[in-house]
Protein 1
Amino acid sequence: MSICSSALAQFEMKDARIAEAQVFAANSSWYAIRVRPRWERTVATALQAKQYEEFLPLYRKRTKWSDRLKDIDHPLFPGYVFCRSELSGRPPLVTTPGVVGILSFGGRPAIVSDQEIEAVKSIIRSGANAGPWPYLNEGTRVRIQYGPLAGVEGILIRAKADWRIVLSVEALCRSVAVEIDREWAVSI
């Protein structure tokens, strides 16, 4: 009986932790954390160590040095790290070394929508050739129907002979462009 009750107690504790995590995710929002120049990775690591859910999207860029070419990962949104938090524990967040502050408008922290975060994560997971792009607020809005980016919405543009979809993160006034096959996109 004691083995059975012990297993049941462990199961209930695990169930309670899952429920607590779901409540936290439901009550928390994504925020853009402003960081010192070139401190994005350091801040992301420190936030992770403080048990925050952080997201630092990176893209690979070929850099030419005097004697060689090298592929280097750069932040997709330089100067920002995304963090999911309730902001009730704000002091530990803003006292992290390298953090300048939380992106705010009118003194209120700007919330980055879950949909925008998921769209950026989809682009990163797809492995498609992506990079920073100037922010756009007009153009043809499209939704990707096929391929690894299915469901992502953005603005369709043409760069030279290639088609790209531009995903904008409203709170940052920044955008990301990713190459796509024109056949993947349908107008919204």
Note: The longest strand covers residues 162-169.
Protein 2
Amino acid sequence: MEVLKKTKTVLCLDLGIKTGYCIGYDNGIILEFGTINFSISNPNKESIPSRLHEFVKEKIETFSVDHVYYEELNFSTTTYATQAHGAYAAMVIFACQVFKVEHTGVGVKAIKKALTNDGNASKMAMMHHAKDFCARRFKAFSLKIHDDNTADAIGIFAYASGAGFKFIPKNVKKR
């Protein structure tokens, strides 16, 4: 008799003003992904971290998320970027604590390595590999990856699901 492993629902986030996200099961099945731009249409004048917090809460509730993975920066080029990323991470962690959801920060090199097998991959390589990663699961999904934020979120998903680098796409140019 085969014992079925219960899958967990994971939410993966590439944090920023333009936050990339990917939702799926830890067995590699993708449910939804995209990029949300928090800098546009804000009639209530809420802060970006507050809007991110609401977005994460909504996804946790809608998809019954078991674990949230987010990009963890160990360095940044400016003090402001470091502080902003810290605020975004704090809002994600707060939402996870409210809903008693596990959360894990993932380093940039680990994300890139999970998707491309190269810890120093360019944005272009990440996008190429993300499209290939999704095309192997659902053909229509690969057409919807328009930016590096979504590609990075898919890289985090590849890391989280363990379904990462198992192939080498053709014609990837390094920059």
Note: The chain has five helices and five strands.
